[in-house]
Amino acid sequence: MPLPPLCPPGPPLSREQITRYSRHVLLEQLGRTGQRRLRGASVLVMGAGGLGAPILAYLGAAGVATIGVVDDDVVEITNLQRQVIHTSAGVGRAKVDSAADFVGGLNDDVQTVRHHLRMDESNALDIIGDYDLVLDGTDNFPTRYLVSDTCAAEGIPLIWGSILRFNAQVSVFWSRPPADARGPDGEPYPAVTLRDLFPVPPPEGTTPSCGEAGVLGAMCGQVGSLMAAEAIKLITGIGEPLLGRVAVLDVLAARWHEVPLRPAPARHAATALLVCAVPYGIGSWQGAYGRINVDTSFAFSFSVQFFLYAVLTTVIWCLGRMSYAADRRNAHALEEQAAEAARAVAAERLQLARDLHDILASAVTAMLLQAAGARAFVGTNDTRVGNALQIIEGAGVEAMRELQRLLGLLRSVDGTTSEGNAPGLEDLDDLIELARASGVVVDTTTNGEPRALDGSVNLAAYRDVQ
After folding, report:
1. Which CATH superfamily is domain 15-294 in?
2. Is 170 helix (H, G, I), strand (E, B) or coil?
3. Global pTM value
């Protein structure tokens, strides 16, 4: 059987609430009962920053009855690039106050509990123990491990998210999921915590923060929305949660990958001793009850698992980058093909222009000879001119104007004009010069047939024919 709903149904929905949450009520898997479960749930959100902002927005809009917010920080101008529930006017305000105002303005059905403090060993159990579910969007390792260890000790499910630069990870941790629940593969859901994924935090100073390395603001919305969706699924008992799975996001490649997660050997025995503990060093932890030493072989197994996971994550990242590089190469190849096609079109247009030049010159020469009386060489004027017009049609306005000018000259020397006069020598000389400018060399001394000579036009021959 799938995971049962985390929360029992709340009170019946009012008519106004049915209208407000109608798009949820219409969902067959969620329906009115699922919405009532949301109205009966209490959720703790750790951090009102980049991840906390979309989490609070969507859980508030979904109608979760009670939302607690833990944050000891104030709104800064640098937060506004990604923390979309805060405003410029709110710079300097406590984030929990700004967040509570936002949620209250969005949905007055929701009660927001403000925890303007830094969570530590002295208050973690008291705060977390009052909620059904915890979502961790914090940005420091001591708090992450403290929240995870406290949730593990209390058996409270934890939705965890981590972001940096263009990458993110999301998972669901639960130290004591229902024993009779089964996943899609028929196997029980694994009892996993953050320490099964990362047994110990990295050494201080080895991993940069978002303030040092940067983060894509829009990615915070993606990851926080996914975390909110996982919370709704757990509360209402729908779908398959990310329990025993880690979703890994590479925004630059626009790809999600999935990594399976299983419990580490002997991890539960150590967790039972580490109530509200914070990592202190390999082989020992500093907890609420003092420094606790554990078997170093246990720490070694953690280190081995951490190393294997790091290798796996690196391989997945490399595959993603290789795929991204291949996509870029394909895009470059397509761009080259498009450029080559454009060059081919340009060459075709150039050849057309050259052909047009030759045909126009031939037409001019033919009309010139005909006007001069060499009737044996050409057929009718209309055929030559018509062909020239068809070919020149796609060559542009300037070429059409040039052709019209040439045809005007041809008509001016046509021997069958309305006046019936013979062509004038000046016009004929103009046409000969046009033919020469077009690269046409003719001689009419051989039966009136044109042929290529050594570069000059026999002007006397034309005058003699006339």
Report:
1. NAD(P)-binding Rossmann-like Domain (3.40.50.720)
2. strand
3. 0.59
